[in-house]
Amino acid sequence: MRLMPLKCFLLTVLVFMGLKGEVSAQTQPTEKPNFIVFIADDMAWDDCGAYGHPKIQTPNLNQLAKDGMKFNHAYLTCSSCSPSRASIITGRYPHSTGAHQLHLPLPASQLTFVEKLKAAGYYTASAGKWHLGTPTESKFDLVTTKMNEWVSTLKQRPKEKPFFMWFAFTDPHRPYQRNIIDRPHTNEDVVVPPYLPDTPEVRGDLALYYDEIARLDGVVGNVRKELNVQKVASNTVIIFLSDNGRPFPRCKTTMYDSGIRTPWIVAWPAEVKAGSVSDSLISSVDLAPTVLDLAGLPVGETFQGKSFRKLLKNPKATTRGLIFAEHNWHDFEDFGRAVRSPRYKYIRNFYTDIPGTPPADAVRSDTYVKMLELRDAGKLTEDQQSCFQIPRQEVELYDVQTDPHELRNLAGNPEYAEVQQELRTALDQWQEETHDRLPRTRRPDEFDRETGQQLPAFRKK
Q1: Which pLDDT does position 460 carry in this prediction?
Q2: Which residues pair with 241 in a beta bridge?
């Protein structure tokens, strides 16, 4: 028998070993990504440098956007604190969670994406504001409600497991304090939206709100530094968003973009192209299925949102044509629903006999006190009077492309009749499919709409 020359034999062995190594590398499971979800408390979508604000000090959020993907059209299902968070964690619309009104705890029966991660071997922790109720605590390995525990929570994680962190701020929620950052914002730094009066009192209130955003921004930077120290930054998906809009009149608790539009940044060095931007519609109800999808886990039928995973590779792709939002009781009785396409917004107000009063803490603010004074003196513009209007218009329709502040109601305009009917039909269908119903009884106000003080019937004895 003729023997193979030694040189050929060695070459054959090396090729075989190389092929074997290549096959092994291909067949071995990929490393599961880690996740950190940052949730701001009452931060408007455009109140940071990454979204074009010229003065707010947000270097870390700006850098996060440069390092990842910025979503220009991300929306919340609700502009109210706890219902919005319940929606995010369950991937369901607020009226489908059992926690649709402010301060209602999320029922234990509601499935969250966090417990699915935990069951799959993830270490799951929450640090900061907890607004989901006691039953949900057991769905995490760790829940700490102390502030400034974000970096320490990251340090104490078990290093042998992939991790998920729910890092929730109390900034920029009211009340505000002065001099909380080294270089406080001034009245000159403020951009006043047209639905608020441009006065020193309003500017001062907004400046303090900006300060809290800057403080929040510092935490984002510190957490990212720790990820680098632990050498896990490249495979950690960071998602930054807010739970609702700024706590000012015509913002928080409304279904205008000032209430439901959110900053949304996704950074994942291993997979997401730095500096990318998406104009596609996404909703906060989509976060849960997306995280599960990225973790390689089945989504399941309880989740009403849609994974936007493909947008992370192709920001010009489309995952949904419409977003839906709702408003329920939050300090004051109310019930409203909205649907938004890339260009138009349709709002239906079911309780037209009451004004669109902002949250009680905003009613007690310097801004609202000044607005009451100007209202009584007849010095508010028409655009600044909407939160006092009675009766409210039952239907509102806006071209948000040409009217971004939603000040010109097109409902009833014959030129937009087709658009109005299409969106109304879509909203009716969504309500039917998600079993959304008008309550049989109306829950009364807990606070006075002029002073923001708690009403006698609700005061603790």
Answers
A1: 74
A2: 39
User: Which amino acid appears at position 396 of this protein?
Assistant: E
- CB 83, CB 100: distance < 8 Å: yes
Q: On the CB side of 193, how many CA atoms lie within 13 Å of its CA?
A: 24
Neighbours of 10 (CB within 10 A): 11
The rounded distance, in Å, linking the Cα atoms of 122 and 264 is 24
Q: Could you give the CA distance from residue 306 to residue 299 in angstroms, rounded to a whole number?
A: 9
User: Which residues, given as ranges, of the chain have pLDDT below 70?
Assistant: 1-30, 461
CA distance 6 to 374: 96
- Whether 302 contacts 111, CB under 8 Å: yes
Amino acid 337: pLDDT = 98
Residue appearing with tokens 């008008």: 438
How many angstroms from the chain centroid is the CA of residue 167? 13
Give the model confidence (pLDDT) of 270-309 as tens digits: 999 999 999 999 999 999 999 999 999 999 999 999 999 9
SS3 string, the chain, reads CCCCCHHHHHHHHHHHHHHHHHHHHHHCCCCCCEEEEEEECCCCCCCCHHHCCCCCCCHHHHHHHHHCEEECCEECCECCHHHHHHHHHHCCCHHHCCCCCCCCCCCCCCCCHHHHHHHCCCEEEEEECCCCCHHHHHHCCEEECCCCCHHHHHHCCCCCCCEEEEEECCCCCCCCCCCCCCCCCCHHHCCCCCCCCCCHHHHHHHHHHHHHHHHHHHHHHHHHHHHHHCCCHHHEEEEEEECCCCCCCCCCCCCCHHHHECCCEEECCCCCCCCEEECCCEEHHHHHHHHHHHCCCCCCCCCCCCCCHHHHHCCCCCCCCCEEEEECCECECCCEEEEECCCEEEEEECCCCCCCCCCHHHHCCHHHHHHHHHHHCCCCCHHHCHHHCCCCCCEEEEECCCCCCCCCCCCCCHHHHHHHHHHHHHHHHHHHHCCCCCCCCCCCCCECCCCCCECHHHCCC
**Alpha-carbon distance 88 to 55, whole Å?**
30
pLDDT digits (tens, 9 = 90+) for 45-100: 999 999 999 999 999 999 999 999 999 999 999 999 999 999 999 999 999 999 99
Residue 407 vs residues 255, 402, 432: alpha-carbon distances, Å: 13, 10, 29
pLDDT on residue 30: 60
Instruction: Give the up-direction half-sphere exposure of residue 450: CA atoms within 13 A in the CB hemisphere.
Output: 4
